[in-house]
Structure formats: structure tokens, C-alpha cells
Automatic annotation (TrEMBL):
Organism: Cohnella kolymensis
Domain HipA-like kinase: from-to ranges: 9-231
Protein name (record): HipA-like kinase domain-containing protein
InterPro entries (alphabetical): HipA_2
Name of a matching Pfam family: HipA_2
Length: 254
């Protein structure tokens, strides 16, 4: 999805990528990671591709969109000019107003979608997102519509982060297990280990064509060549096996 930024609201005072909050022409506010963010350009395609893959798996991923910031808006906003924001297609995550980040076990009380937790952990191992197991900032607890839910955000470090063709090849069979205080919070909520098996089955049943849909329409300025897309699809195919091996070890913790 593409939206246009209509006004700048404020800086989000958290995160290595120094995201900014904008109101956009679909009426939503977006937490926007910029083309020239300090974590690097790969953050943008990583977020979008991971969001689309997560959605294919029916995981509670926060909605992402390509956010176009115009030169005109930058001219009108001294703050954007000071931060040297560039006009162009940036990456936005729909801002969830009534949320907190997941920090402790109490935050999960009453969440209605904890059946997705095994899927989330399997997903992170498939796409090699090492940045959720221990990082308190990367799961939001949303309280919209009277329903309390976990929402997965921040896939900047998917595919290990700043990947290259060489690193994709190197990592496609990597079986590393990610673990930390955030995954630990889910131990009481994943009582049936078969949930990992069914999450893995879902990942493994994604077709190559479906993986390609996650690559479609990425802005040229995000600098992901057709070859890189092809190699990323190949990497994801390989990792269907590697994720299974990692999960065999990880299941012992539950
Ligand atoms: N969609 C959203 N709705 C509400 N708050 C958000 C949203 N996206 C991000 N945030 C807030 O902004 C913070 C930084 O966002 P995010 O984790 O995506 O960026 P980051 O720079 O990659 O962070 P990190 O320091 O984990 O690498 C989050 O921890 C969260 O507090
Ligand atoms: Mg984060």
C-alpha cells in the first residue's frame, strides 16, 4: 500500500532508526523509518517484506505501507529540514495509539491472540529476526476495540539485518536458536509444543509464487535489485528446512 504524508507530528524518541510520526492521507498516523535512517536502507525493504510474509501466515504483524513524503511538506516543516529528511518513499507502520511495549508477564494477561505466539517465534527463526527474543521494544500490546492483543513490529533486522548476496548464502542453512527474556514470557502460554510444528508446516507450505508476492512493488529507491529479490526468495526456501532444525532445539525450552 502507498500513502502520502500530509503532516509531520513529532519524533518517536525511541529506536536506533530514529523514526518519525506522520499523519497520512488515509487518515492514519504512521511511525516512519526514513530512507536515510541511521540503521541503513535495508531497514525499509526488510520491514515491508517481513510484514507481507507475516500477513501470509496470518500473524499479528503491524500494518506497513510505503509513505511518500513530498518536497513541499519538507519545505513547510523546519523540523524536517533540520533533520535533513529527503523527499521520497519511506516505510511506515500504522501507529497504534493505546499501546505499550511488552515488558513483563502481566502485560500478556488477557491478550486474546496468544495462540499466535508459537507462529511468531517460528517466523522469527525462519526470517532470522534475532531482534525480538530479548528486545522489549518489538512487541506492542494493543488495546483497540476492547481487545487486548500482541502486535509484532520492527522487522528491521529480518534476514539478519544489513544482508548482502553473500550473507544470504552464508545464512540460509544457519540453525541458530534465538532466546531471551521476551520469548520467555510466552512459556506459560505455549503449552502445546505441536503449535510449533503446525507453524512450521504453514511456513513450509508457502509457495515460491507467494514468496515473490512479498517482493512486489518495492520502490526503486529502496535499492533491492531483481537479483537480490531472487536470492532472497531462494534464501527463504532454504530456510524452511533450517527453521525446522532451529525449532527442534527451541521447543525444548517450552
Ligand atoms: N506502529 C507503532 N505504533 C506505536 N508505536 C510504535 C510503532 N512502531 C514503533 N513504535 C514505537 O517506536 C519504537 C521504535 O520502533 P522500532 O522498534 O520499529 O524501531 P527501531 O529503530 O528498529 O528500534 P530498535 O531500537 O528496536 O532497533 C518502538 O519500540 C515503539 O515504542
Ligand atoms: Mg525496535
Amino acid at each position: 500500500m502507498n500513502v502520502k504524508a500530509v503532516s509531520y507530528i513529532r519524533a518517536i524518541e525511541e529506536g536506533w532508526s530514529r523514526p518519525l510520526l506522520f499523519r497520512c492521507d488515509d487518515g492514519n498516523q504512521y511511525v516512519v523509518k526514513l530512507l536515510n535512517n541511521p540503521q541503513g536502507i535495508k531497514v525499509l525493504p526488510n520491514e515491508m517484506i517481513a510484514f507481507r510474509l507475516g500477513r501470509l501466515l496470518h500473524l499479528p504483524v503491524g500494518e506497513c505501507a510505503i509513505v511518500h513524503v513530498s518536497g513541499e511538506l519538507i519545505t513547510q516543516s523546519p523540523a524536517l529540514r533540520d533533520m535533513q529528511v529527503k523527499a521520497g518513499p519511506h516505510l511506515g507502520s500504522v501507529y497504534r495509539e493505546t499501546v505499550k511495549v511488552l515488558q513483563n508477564a502481566d502485560d500478556l494477561t488477557g491478550c486474546c491472540n496468544l495462540d499466535k505466539a508459537a507462529g511468531m517465534i517460528a517466523f522469527d527463526h525462519w526470517i532470522q529476526n534475532w531482534d525480538r527474543a530479548d528486545n522489549i521494544g518489538n512487541i506492542l500490546v494493543s488495546k483497540e476495540d476492547d481487545n487486548k492483543k500482541i502486535v509484532m513490529i520492527d522487522h528491521a533486522n529480518a534476514f539478519t539485518g544489513s544482508w548482502t548476496l553473500d550473507s544470504l548464502k552464508e545464512n540460509r542453512t544457519n540453525r541458530s536458536v534465538y532466546w531471551g527474556k521476551i520469548y520467555e514470557l510466552f512459556i506459560p502460554h505455549i503449552s502445546d509444543k505441536r503449535l510449533f510444528k503446525s507453524a512450521l508446516r504453514q511456513i513450509q507450505s508457502l509457495s515460491k509464487a507467494e514468496l515473490w508476492t512479498a517482493m512486489s512493488g518495492l520502490p526503486r529507491k529502496w535499492s533491492v535489485s531483481h537479483t537480490e529479490q531472487r536470492k532472497l526468495v531462494k534464501y527463504l526456501e532454504y530456510r524452511k528446512v533450517a527453521a525446522g532444525e532451529a525449532l527442534k532445539d527451541l521447543r525444548k525450552k517450552f
